[in-house]
Structures are given as C-alpha cells and as structure tokens.
Amino acid sequence: MNIRYATSEMNFAGKFPDNYPHMRVLETQLRFLDTDHIPLFNILQSDTKYNGDVVYNIGKGDLDKDYIRILYTQFNNVVELLKQKFDKVYIYQDGEIGWWNQTDVKLQVWWYNQLESSDGILVPNSTDVNFYKGIFPDVPIKVIRSVMTDVGLDKSKFKPKSGRSIVTGPLTREYNGLVQVLLAHNYGLPVDIPPMGESRMPKDSWEMADNIGVNYLPYMSWIDWMYNLNQYEIGYMMSAATASGSFALNCAYLGIPCIGDKRADTQSLLFPDLAVDWFDTKTALELTLRLKQDKDFYNSVVNKAKKILQSEFTKEKMIEVLKINN
User: Fold this and answer.
1) pLDDT at 326 (0 to 100)
2) What is the predicted pLDDT for the residue at 203?
3) pLDDT at position 186, please?
4) The domain spanning residue 167 has which CATH number?
5) 149 located within any domain
6) What is the span of the domain harbouring residue 134?
7) Are 179 and 261 part of one and the same domain?
8) Would you call 17 exposed, middle or buried from its count of C-beta atoms within 10 A (0-12, 13-18, 19+)?
9) 214, 180 in Cβ contact below 8 A?
10) Statement: residue 3 has pLDDT above 70
11) Which helix (H) or strand (E) holds 80?
12) Residue range 209-221, pLDDT digits in tens
C-alpha cells in the first residue's frame, strides 16, 4: 500500500494540522498516514492524475442529501473514475456495517458497486472483516485501527470530575439509547447524552429527555468534547451499531471506565473486563454495580485501559496492523 491521498465530502484540503478542531478518528488516521486530503469533487472535476493510492470515505446519506444525489446522478461510477487518477483506491468504512441497507435500493446497489470495484476496504474492527468477506470475497479487507491524538488539547481546560455519567448516543435504534440510559441510572448519577444538538436529533428523542431523566449536551467540536468528557465518572457504549468506537477510546485516554459492546475493538482491547456481548444487559448491570461499589476494581480497569492505550492505539501500532492485513 502506498496511501498518499485521501478524499471525502469534506471541503478541507491538505494535511490536518495539530490544532484542527474536529480531529475525529478518521482525521487522526489520515494524519498518521501523512496523507493529503483533497475534496472529492475537486478530483472528479479536474484532469489531474496522482502518484500513489487514495483512501475514499464515501460518507453516509440518502438521495435527499445533495452530495450523495450528485454522486449517484453525475458520477455514478465514482470509484472507477478515481482509479483513472490514482494507483489504487481503498474504501474507508464510514459508520457501522450494514448502514447502507437502510437506504433506497438503488443506493444499496450503487454502494455495492463502489466497494466491489475498489482495491480494498478499510474497516475499524476485526469483527467487521467477516461481514465484508462474505459479500466481497475477492476484495482485500484491511483493519485500520481507531486512534486518537492529544496534540491539539490543552489539558488545563479539562473539566474536573462532577459526579455525572454519560452514554454514547441518543434514544435511537443505532445508539440503543434508552437501554443505555436505564443501565446508567443504576450507577446513581445524573446521565448526559453526547453533543449532537437539537437540530440533529429526532424530535421525540429530544422532547422525551426530561421524562426519562437525561440531559442532552449542545453540539461541540471534538476538542471541546474532550474537555467536557473529562468530568464523567462512567460511560456506556452499548450501541446497536458498532463503528469506530471512539467513545471507548476517548474514555480510556481520560481514565473513565466504559461498559460496552465487545464487537468494537476499542472496547474489547481497552476495557476487556467491561466488554459484554450484544444484548447482555444483565452483565452490564452487574458491572455497573461492581464499579459503583468496588473502587479497587474501578481503579484497576482505568489503569489497565491507560496502559493498553499506550501500546495498542499508537500511530505505529495502527500502521503495523494495517500492514499485517496487507
């Protein structure tokens, strides 16, 4: 692999700087690969050819999203077009596996055609591999481990502990929010839901928050999210959808125990003692009560996560895992 470029719907061009405010998993991975990001339509609308491979993040969306609609109607064979300009084209899994099954059937087939014609698919979890192997047996599937960087963080701005708990997402199917909230209430602290903003939430999810004793946070940049996250005592990542698992990754960095679905590599590797099977709320409840009552267990979980983070979620380890899967 000679990944030198990346492309997506983002308008950002160049290498992501230290102070980039939205340094999510994808941006960090591209930074660690030392890629130049080029907006997708800039590539498609020019005759420039590039020396090297490209990572293409299709992005999520239905035909009511301008970006997806333009691709489908004007650049239907987008991966083939990219292959004319780059040595190889790798598709980056955006979001959870199976997400595209929810879209219009025309888009489902379009999605399939893009991945089938690619030179490889990059996925965040080892548990994702078999999903793609069954559908694309002739396409290489490679794990690109989720990572984070703290180069843009000012640690003096971290909020102090404030006696609160937080779940990974809202009261929707993808996030399994109600179940997470019910579990979190057993820890006995006020419960917050991450910053996606009222305009990004289903109306009923937002309006029911007070009735089930949760608080929605306002939308914020990744940097502000990290400053805010530091205040929590426990987190839950028992989402129905498993994607990059950045929530567990961020919790480990800040020393916050996270109970979550073992399908996410971040959860199973960083918090093996708190990783549960999907739907196993019984064990999640038992772990909630143990963390609440046994401070030695609480501290051991936190210390283990911080240690594993330093060895398994570095730039070097991400590149090593990617090469092993080459």
Assistant:
1) 47
2) 67
3) 97
4) 3.40.50.2000
5) no
6) 3-144
7) yes
8) exposed
9) no
10) yes
11) helix 78-83
12) 788 889 888 888 8
* Cα–Cα distance measured from residue 256 to residue 300, given in angstroms and rounded to the nearest whole number: 11
Q: Largest Cα–Cα distance of the chain, in whole Å?
A: 63
Q: Are the C-beta atoms of 38 and 119 separated by less than 8 Å?
A: no
Element (H, E) at 237: strand 234-237
Long-range pairs of 275-283 with CB within 8 A, sequence gap ≥ 24: 276/238, 278/238, 278/240, 281/179, 281/183, 281/238
Give the CB-side neighbour count of residue 18, counting CA atoms within 13 A: 5
Domain stop point among 144, 166, 199: 144
- The one-letter code for the residue type at 290 is R
Per residue in 290-307, pLDDT tens?
A: 999 999 999 999 999 999
In this structure, is residue 61 part of a structural domain? yes
pLDDT of residue 195: 66
What does the alpha-carbon distance between residue 225 and residue 54 come to, in Å, rounded to a whole number?
A: 29
The encoded tokens of residue 76 equal: 């239907």
Tokens 């501290």: give the residue: 299
Say whether both 131 and 172 belong to one domain. no
- Model confidence at 196: pLDDT above 70: no
Looking at the structure, tell me whether residues 161 and 64 fall in a common domain.
Answer: no
Residue 307, in any domain of the structure: yes
Per-residue pLDDT reduced to its tens digit, 240-283: 888 899 999 999 999 999 999 999 999 999 999 999 998 899 99
Q: How many CA atoms lie within 13 A of 74 on its CB side?
A: 10
